[in-house]
Structure formats: structure tokens, C-alpha cells
Amino acid sequence: MSLSLSGLHLSRGRKAILTDLSTAAFEPGQFIVLAGPNGAGKSSLLRAIAQTLPYEGQITLAGQNLKAMKRRERAARIGYMPQHLESHSDLTVLDSLRVAMNAGGASTLSHGAQITCAEELLARVGCVHLATRALSGLSGGQRQSVGLAQALARDPELLLLDEPTAALDLSMQFRILAEMKALSREGRIVIAVLHDLTQAARWADRLVVLSQGAVTADGAPSEILTPELLGEVYHVNARVERDSRGETLICVDGPAT
Amino acid sequence: MTTPAQPDAMTDTMTDTTTLSQFETRRQARRILLVAILAFLALGGLLADIVSGPSGLPLSEVLNVLTGGEEASRGAEVIVWKVRLPVALMALLVGAALSLAGTEMQTVLENPLAEPFTLGVSSSAALGAGVAIILGISLPVLPPIWAVSANALVFALMSMFILQLVSQLRGGGPTVVILFGIALNFTAGALLALLQFVASADALQQLVFWTMGSLAGVRWESIVLMALVLAITLPFSLKASWQLTALRMGTTQAQSFGVDVTRLRRWALVRVSVLAACAVSIVGVIGFVGLAGPHIARITVGEDHRFLLPASVLTGAVLMSFASILSKLLVPGILLPIGIVTSLVGLPVFFALILRKKGNLS
């Protein structure tokens, strides 16, 4: 059940966002982080995989072309959390999870089973106490955690998360990153966009660095994160250090000279 | 648009002793009860509307006529079957249709101000009526008695067709549709003013009366037509209720749940077109109900469209029914055009409700 991307082209208006992007297959059980500077095409790539942006090229899941897959099946197999989550709705968190379970096609679970499932999902992201709160009453971080639960609502095999930790405090960041790792270990492919390369190095099994719509580096974080790569992609002077426990630390000293 | 934190749309709180499942069951039961109360109010409105009028028929006699009792007088039968019942039924149906159209429009265009009136459907219908009344141009095969309504219907449908085309354009998102609808509203208004400028005094009076919206002289054929349109569109709206609710969380998130938003918008606008065009062409321009019905329903049962859609239909029906009663009672002996009543009396009530809800309209 691997995910393959080959020859992807994506443009918005006249601006090319992704140009002939191909990667080695993403395998189940892998936690993959997409990184790269702003405007590199990370979010667009996730949206293309989630089939919410038109593209040229081929994206296959378990050998099946995603473009040809029925919308209903796609909704069940792919969970996608967008970068910007609107929060003006008065729907409760519980309502929103039930919508996530049913909007792409009626869930096969009974009403009671859907509530139990929603409760379990909220427990996974540490938000069970928010179940009866309105989305409009959540903080940015709470909304993001609920967004992750929504993406998980149909128990997808492929999980696409756009900056899932951007609004979270340190404790919630740890919790959500650990949860993403655990979700991948359950046999899912988990792909997340992250800007924090130290976190990426700590948690990801595989790091794909995008720059100007193409893959610049792809591999185990400890192998590909080098000062040269950071200089080339982010135009910064950076050091890649190891802490006392052998974990990778990225330290940026300033713009590239 | 950000809003102040609210515990929950239904102001429920979950205590430690209740499980989430119990909480949800209670909440659903309460929403069903609220919809049932609205249905009861609509039925009460219908009866009160039939009873109210200058000739003072008591409820017992009205019920006697409606149930085919033998001792009903011929006069009472004529009043109920030929005058009061058609008006009362049409009030319910038009209110239901406009409110349903408003709810779907507000949801798919993600704008709390969207309704047939603000997007130019009503003014286009008025333009169509103006063309028939002032220029005498109408569809050739129809009897003259239907000319005005038929023209209004064609123009209203055309306006919605143009809005549909705009929504299909590349980049034709909800904002573009709304801006275009507003432009359409002004254009139709300007063309209507031009017609009024060249109209004879008689034609002008007739047109002004039509644009005020009136239930007087409603035909049974129109009632059947309106009921059919509602009966055909409502099941499709209800079938899309999960998808419509998903859209309350924004286009991107609805798409992420697997909703085909383009298709959802297209079909919702088709339903809205037929509902609004039919209602406006039969009874004239009636503002407020398409805007207030959905908001009052949302305040009452929340945003879950499985409950919101039926609640909107019933709220619109109740609003129009009570407006119809008031149109007979406000000035004794005179039947005011209902469009005036809905706007004058309804708006203060509507604003009072919104202010109590602390202004969350999104």
C-alpha cells in the first residue's frame, strides 16, 4: 500500500508551483516530513495528493491512480488536515467529527459507535474535554488538535497534515508529534509539513526537502541535514550539531554570506 | 470573522456524570422537540390565518368547513375555500420556500447576507413583471392571467442562470457570485426604474402593487405548483445535509472530508433558483423572510443541517403565516401587502433575536 508520486506538475495561474516532481515510494509505517522554504510548494503538494488541487502527472496509492479513484473511497482512505482551519462555526467539536465521518459518504458506523469513535479520537489528541465546545470558542492550538482528530475520523491509511504543530505549545507539540509517529507505526503513511527541522530530525523517518517546486533532498534526516543543504535551500549559515543524547540540533547563525 | 468564545450553540454543558453519548442523545431529542414545536406553530399559524379576517368566522365554523361538516353555511364555505385557505396555505408555502432558499444560499455562498432578495432574484422577477405589465410583452402561449407571473418566473430563473454561469467561471468563488448578484440587483432595479419612467399611470400602479408582494387572489394552481416545487427540492436538500454542514467549516475543510464542493454549490443553487423564482413570481417581492428565517432557525437548532433545513422551512412558514395574519389585522378593514408587513414588523423582532445571540451571524 505505498504512495508514489511521479512527474507532478502543478501551476496556479501562470506561476509554476511544482515542476516534474517525483519521489521514491512512501511506505506504510513511515512518518515523512516535508520541509522547505516558504513558497517551495509543500502545501500545494499535500493538496495535490489530497486531490483538492488540479495537477498533471501521476499519484498512486497501492497502485491505484488517485484521480481515477471514487471520491467516496478516497475520502475513506485519505485524511487531510489543511493549513488554515476556519473556526467561525458554532458547530460543536463532536458535531464536526460526525460531519468528518459522514460528509464524504454516510459512515457505516451506528450513531452510538460514531460518538464512541469521536471520543476515542479526541482522547488521542488530548481534547476530549472540548467535545461539547463550539469550534468558534477554541484557541488556535485547540482548533489544530481538533483538526487532526477530524483528519483521522475515517481511520485513513494515508494521513496528510499541513503544519499540524504550528499553533501548539511545547507540550502539545510533543504530544501531537508522538501521536503522528504512533499513527505511522500502526501501518499508516503519515506525511506532515513542518518548518522546525530540529523536530523533523527527531521524529521523522524520512525527510523530503522541497525547493522551488522540486525535491532537493530526500532521505533519513540525520543523513541529509547538512549545513550545505541548509545554505543552499534556506540561504542561511547554519550548524548541524548533536546534543548529549545524540539528537540533531539545527542552529542558524544568520543569513548566508 | 472571529467570534467570542461560546460554550456551545445549544448552551449545553456536559457534567462529569453524563457521558458524551447521553449528552448527544439529549441534545438530539431537544432539537427534534424544537422542530416539532415549530411544526406546531406553523399549524397554529395556518389555522389562525384562516380564522382571521374582516368577516369574523369563529374557529369552530372554520373547522366545520374544513372537516366537511354538514351544518356549515354556504357563505362560510366560500370564504374558507376560495379566500382564506388559499391565502393561508400560500403564506406557509412561500415562507417555507424562501427560507429554505435563503438557508442553502447562505451555506453554499458562505455568507450570512445571501438570500434571493439580496442577490437580485427578486428584482429580476420584478423586472419581468414590469415587462409584462408595462410593455405587454410576455410568453405567447400562456393565457393573459398568467402573463405577469410567467414573466417574473422566466426573469428570476434567468438571473439565477446567470449567477450559475458566473459560479462556473474560473475563479468564480462565493464572493464573486455575491458581488455579481448585487450588481444584478442594481441593474434590474435600474431597468425597472426606466420602465416605470415610461409607464402609464395605471400600469405603474399595478406594478407598484405587484412589487409590494401580495397573497390576495392566489389561485389553487399556484398553490399546487409551489407545493410540488417544495416537495421535489426539499428531499434533495435533506440528502445533502451532511455536506452542507461540512461547508460551514469552510470550502477547504469540506473538500478534505471528501465533499465535491463545486457540485454541491451547483445543485444547491439550482434548487434555490427554482424555489425563489417560483415564490417571487407568484406572490411578488417579499424581503426579510429569506434572510431572517434561516437565522432564526440557526439560533434555534444550531448549524447541523439535518435539523437546520426542516427548522428553516418551518420558521419561514411561521413567519409568513403570522405576517399574513398581521396584514389583515394591522389596519382594520384593509388588507396590507404582505411584503410591507414582513419587513416592517419582522425586522425589529429579528434584530432583537440577533442581539440576544450577541450578534454571531456568520
Question: What would you say this structure looks like, in words?
Answer:
- The complex is a heterodimer of chains A (257) and B (362).
- Chain A has 257 residues and is α/β, with parallel strands linked by helices.
- Chain A has two domains: 3-225, Rossmann fold (3-Layer(aba) Sandwich), CATH 3.40.50; 226-257, no CATH class.
- Chain A has helices at 42-49, 71-77, 93-102, 111-124, 140-151, 170-185, 197-203, 221-224, 227-234, and strands at residues 3-12, 15-21, 31-35, 56-61, 64-65, 78-81, 158-162, 189-193, 206-211, 214-219, 236-242, 248-255.
- In chain A, strands 6-7-8-3-9-10 form a six-stranded mixed sheet, sandwiched between helices.
- Chain B is mostly helical and 362 residues long.
- Chain B has a single domain (20-356), classed as ABC transporter involved in vitamin B12 uptake, BtuC (Orthogonal Bundle).
- Chain B is built from 14 helices and no strands.
- Chain B has helices at 20-51, 59-66, 74-108, 121-135, 147-168, 174-198, 201-211, 220-239, 241-247, 251-256, 261-283, 289-301, 305-329, 338-356.
- In chain B, helix 4 (121-135) packs parallel to helix 11.
- Chain B is globular and about 60 Å long.
- The termini of chain B are close together.
Total helical segments of chain A: 9
Mean pLDDT of chain A: 91
Assign the CATH topology of the largest domain in chain A. Answer: Rossmann fold
Amino-to-carboxy terminus distance of chain A: 45 Å
**CATH fold field value of chain B:** ABC transporter involved in vitamin B12 uptake, BtuC
**Per DSSP, what share of the residues of chain A sits in E-state strands of 2 or more residues?**
25-35%
Membrane topology (chain B): Multi-pass membrane protein
Subcellular location (chain B): Cell membrane
Keywords (chain B): Cell membrane, Membrane, Transmembrane, Transmembrane helix, Transport
Protein name (chain B): Iron complex transport system permease protein
